[in-house]
Structure formats: structure tokens, C-alpha cells
Amino acid sequence: MEKVKIAILGFGNVGTGVWKILQENKKEIMKRSNYDIEVAKILVNDINKKRDFELPAGILTDNIDDIINDDNIKIVVELIGGRDQAKEYMIRAMKAKKHIVTANKLVIANWSEELFRIAEDENVLFYYEASVAGGIPIIREINESLTANRIEGIIGIINGTTNYILSKMTIEGISFEEALKEAQDKGFAEADPTSDVDAFDAVYKLAIMSSLAFGTKVDHDCIYREGIRNISDVDIEYAKQFGYTIKLLAIAKEENNKLELRVHPTLIPSTHPMANVNDAFNAILIKGNAVGELMLYGQGAGDLPTGSAVVGDIISILRNNVKPSELKELNDKVDFKEVKKSEDNESEFYIRLNVKDRAGVLGDTAAIFGSNNVSITSLTQDVVHKEYVLLAFITHKSAEKNIRNSIKQIKELANVNEVESIIRIESFK
Predict the structure, then answer these.
(1) Angstrom distance (rounded) from CA 70 to CA 264
(2) CA-CA distance, 252 to 210, in Å (whole number)?
């Protein structure tokens, strides 16, 4: 059986996961790829760092040139993450006629056009399945299984860290800070969790999926973004009272050739399957005009789930089922579609106010909602102090600009202390 040499750039969680899979599943991989895969080099920052298992002598290097200049290495697996250096290394590798596998959503979301053009020019393959949902094969589903469909919408839990935090807050009743600390202790969250908890990670992933699903270029800066830092135990308890669960959702919909793209905390019916996606698991619901609704569920992060997607891409390259020209999915379909302004989106809303315990407050608030064409479907109030009352509303579907106008006017009421929370609702209708 012919041997093929590959190199891995980066040997963190995912890199070690790829190594383990290639070693433990060697026989199965050889059968499926018809190649004996040898990891010839692994790029690391510190060759002398102590590791949990032994590696063959000479396999580690801290010099990218040892990989770029080795003509025997045919596939480069980029797992160092980050922006500029990862991009530079991938471009250099492609210009050296090496195929690329990457899990780097940040680079794909920002420079897909340039990378795929270079891949075509150099006649090499570029695979990125692991960049979106770890072990969930969402890219293949969109590119292959669902090609007979016009995709109408995608709704997903696509960040394992935030889902872990919200699951802990919901199930165990702990605070955001406690849940974040636990996620960091378990390795789900970085020391600086900004990319996850402020939803940048989910935005990059949604940009990639939307580009593929709707056949257009999507600038991730056009996606509305809101993280989970302001979600409190009070909101979670009110959500339960109303029959909802709070999740960070990535939502993409197409209507009349316009795209609605947003990532934010969302109340979803507790009876919906996605409400029961907990811990670091991910789930993606795709709506096609022929297939209807299809939900993919699995581990969206971690060494082995993400490593599985990476090794799957390596095998696909070896099988050579896809030609380089077919890999430009993000760029060839240049039917540019307008992204709606967030103020033009419509949804139901959960709104929580802190108000003085005075006669007329509820009436004044309701009048403002009514004057802005916002209809209330549910209301609850709780006295939390002899002077203060919490009012929690659920609205019918309303234009976001009407909600914003309402909130602006409500804040000016003398008896309203604070608008403490505004969270959108997704009813999956």
C-alpha cells in the first residue's frame, strides 16, 4: 500500500486528537483511504515541552521551513488557530503544492476567496469541515447531501462553550461567573473567553455556513452579534415560567432574496429538541424546501470530535473525490444577496423591566407598546422589594425597530428604574 506523508501545524487539543485517531484507527483509515498515512512532521512552539505520550524521534519541529521545503509531505493540516500566521503558512504550503486541511473558522470567514483562488491556481485541495461544528459534518451536508434543496434557513447551537455555560446555569442554577469558571477548568473555555461568550466564534461559523447554504458571499461584520454575558439566573427562571429555555443561537434565513443573519441569546420552546441539547454539544437545524427540517446533533468541540472531522478531510483528499474547482463553493456563487438590517428583523421578544411599585406603571408601559404596534401575549410581575417590582413581558412577533422605539420611550418613564433584559424568541415556525 502506498504511503503518504502529512504534516500537522500545531499540537494542542485538536492536533493531539488527530494524532490519536491516526494511530488508533490506522487499519480502518488505510482501508478507507487506500493509503498508509504517516505523520512526518509536527510544528510546535517548544520541541522540549513535556507531553503526555511519546512521539517518534525527529517528528517535532519549530521551523515551518522543514515542512514547506519537504517535497515528500503532500498534505498540511493547519491547527495552530489565530489569523495571520495560520493564513501565511497555508498559502506557503499551497504554493509548495501541498493540499490543505484546516479547522480555522477565523481565517476561512475572513479570507476564503483568496485561499480558494490560490488552491485552484496551484491545483491543490482545500478542506475545512472541522471549522464549523467539530464532529458534525455540516459542510458535507450542505455541499453534497442537500444539493437538491433550496435551503431556506439554518438555526444552530454552534458554540460548545456557551452551550455548556447556559446548560449549567439552567440545570444547576449557578451563576454565569460560576459556569464560566467551570468551563475554563474543564478546558471548554479559554483563559480569555471573549471569542466564545461574546459570540465572535459563532458569527464566523455562521458566515461560512450562510455563504455555502445561500450561494452568496457573506461578510461576518454584517451579522448581528450579541453574547451571553448579560444572561442572569432571573432570566433563566422567567424563561422556565413561560415555557422556554435560553440558548445562544446562530440564525440564518432567506426570504425574497434577502438574508436575515444573527447570533444572540434566544428563548426557545422547552419542548423543542434543541432545548435539550446540553453541555458542550452542538445541534444544527436545516430547513430545505424539499427535505423539510433536518437536525444534526453531536459534539461540536473537543480533541476527538474535531479531530474526526479533520481526519475525514484527509481521507477525502486521498480519495480525491472532489476536484479543486469544486472547492470554491464560498466564492463561485456570486449571487449577492442583501443582508437585512437588524432593525428590520421580526421576532417575538422577552422583555424584563425593573419598576417602582406605583399605580399606573403597567398601564403606561402597555400604552407605549401599543402605540408602537407591539402586542403583548404574556405578562408576569413579582414584587422583589417593597419599592421595586419586576415586570416580564412576552410579545407577539414584532419588528425590531418597534421594540427599540418602545424601549427608548419606556426608559423615559419616571417610574421605570431599568430595562434589565431584552431577549429574542425563536418559535421555529
Answers:
(1) 45
(2) 7
**Which cell numbers in the block locate residue 209?**
455556513
Q: Scanning the structure block, which residue is given the C-alpha cell 484507527?
A: 25
pLDDT score at 410: 97
Listed residue (143, 140, 181, 139) closest to 164, CA to CA: 181
Q: Output the pLDDT for position 245.
A: 98
CATH number of 138-299: 3.30.360.10
Q: Does the active-site annotation cover 328?
A: no
Tell me the pLDDT tens digit for each residue of 250-287.
Answer: 999 998 889 999 999 999 999 999 999 999 899 999 99
Q: Give yes or no for residue 327 having a pLDDT over 90.
A: no
- C-alpha span between 157 and 170 (Å, rounded): 16
DSSP letters spanning 208-254: HHHHHHHTS---GGGSEE--STT--HHHHHHHHHHTEEEEEEEEEEE
d(CA 292, CA 273): 16
Name which of 242, 293, 289 is nearest 268 in CA terms: 242
Distance CA 20, CA 23 (A): 5
Cβ burial 287-323 (10 Å sphere, 16+ → b, else e)? bbeeeeeeeebbbbbbbbbbbbbbbbbbbbbbeeeee
Look at residues 272, 242, 265, 240 and name the one whose alpha carbon lies nearest to residue 422.
Answer: 265
Arch. (CATH architecture) of 343-425: 2-Layer Sandwich (3.30)
Distinct helix (H) and strand (E) counts, the chain: 16, 18
- pLDDT (tens digit, 9 = 90+) per residue, 403-424? 999 999 999 999 999 999 999 9
Over residues 185-206, the pLDDT tens digits come to 987 888 899 999 999 999 999 9
CB neighbour class for 222 (10 Å; exposed up to 12, middle 13-18, buried from 19): middle
Domain 3-134+306-324 is in which class?
Answer: alpha beta
Residue-wise pLDDT for 202-236, tens only, equals 999 999 999 989 988 899 999 999 999 999 999 99
Rounded Cα gap, residues 367 and 170, in angstroms: 33
Given the residues 205, 253, 287, 340, select the one marked as catalytic.
Answer: 205
Beta carbons of 8 and 37 less than 8 angstroms apart:
no
Distance of CA 195 to the CA centre of its chain: 10
Region of 239 (left: φ > 0; alpha: ψ -120 to 50; beta: rest) is alpha
Sign of CA dihedral 265, 287, 116, 340: negative
CA angle 81, 300, 341 (to 5 degrees): 80
Give domain limits for the chain. 3-134+306-324, 138-299, 343-425
